[in-house]
Amino acid sequence: MHIDKLYHFIAGMFIFWVASYFMAYPIIPVIIIAISKEIYDKVIKHNYADIWDITATIAGGILIWVVM
C-alpha cells in the first residue's frame, strides 16, 4: 500500500519536471493530473478514489518546486 504512495510521489515529481519546460506554473498540471487520475479510478474503474494518492502526487511536485 505504501509503495503506491511512493509511485504517486515520483509521478508528481516527474510531471512537474516535464511541465516546467513548457509553462510558468508547472504545479497546475500536477494538481489537474492527480485529481483526474483519482476521478478515473472512481468513475471508470469503479475503484476507491484515495485523497492520499492526490496528496502524495502533489507533494512530489511541491518538493521539486522548492528544490528548483
Helices, strands, pairings?
Blueprint: H1 2-19, H2 27-43, H3 51-67
Helix pairs in contact: 1-2, 1-3, 2-3
Helical proportion, percent range: over 70%
Residue stretches low in confidence (pLDDT < 50, at least 5 long) are none
Classify the beta-strand content into a percent band: under 5%
User: Counting H and I runs of at least 4 residues, what is the number of helices?
Assistant: 3
For the sheet with most strands, the description reads: none
Assembly type of the chains comes to single chain
| Overall geometric form | globular
What are the secondary-structure elements, in order, as H or E?
HHH
Whole-number mean pLDDT: 94
Give the domain tally: 1
Number of strands: 0
Radius of gyration: 12 Å
Counting helices, strands and paired strands, the structural category is mainly alpha
Distance between the termini: 29 Å
Describe the structure.
By secondary structure, the protein is an all-alpha fold. It has one domain. The protein is 76% helix and 0% strand. The protein contains 3 helices and no strands. The protein has helices at residues 2-19, 27-43, 51-67. The radius of gyration is 12 Å and the shape is globular. The termini are far apart. The mean pLDDT is 94.
